[in-house]
Amino acid sequence: MVKEPQKGFKMTTKVQKLTLTADEQNQYEARFNLGLMYLNGDGVPQDYKAAFKWFTQLSENGFAPAQYNLGTMYYNGDGVPQNYELAVKWWTLAAEQGIAKAQYNLGWMYFTGVGVAQDYKAALKWYTLAAEQGNADAQYKAGLMYHEGYGIARDDDAIAFKWWTLAADQGHAKAMRHRNLLMQFG
After folding, report:
1. pTM for this one?
2. Which one of 104, 108, 157, 183 is at 20 to 30 Å from 92 when CA atoms are compared?
3. What's the rounded Cα separation, in Å, for the pair 19 and 37?
């Protein structure tokens, strides 16, 4: 249940409208926004349990942005016991629907072996999917994997250079440095 507002705190019209919209019209976006408001304490007191409730309902109905946030709550232990396996479960469902941040996070999980068995091929798959959507961090990580030969038969500096250039074009400092070193020293 939602915590009572702090003394002197009035629930905003925006929250009341979102609650009515979510309950009466069953709109995923409204429910998702309400979950975000509770997660971040935006216009309401921060309430992880309320955020968890909204994100869980939406996640179980396949709403990818909520699945991403639910995975993040499990990863960080925000209002729930920290559980990397459940983070991977929810991020996978979101990633399969094209959420780039979830794809990037899965790349990291598979690369490091946190919450899953370490699997460089899976890490490269998820980093590449996020990179193809323009995620600069994923472009940088995919470049590293190609440069070092993780998840592939041999290193491939041409593909590493491509990913680092795309990330560098977005201002990613590490990608700029790696790309420039590759250009200088091959």
Report:
1. 0.82
2. 157
3. 11
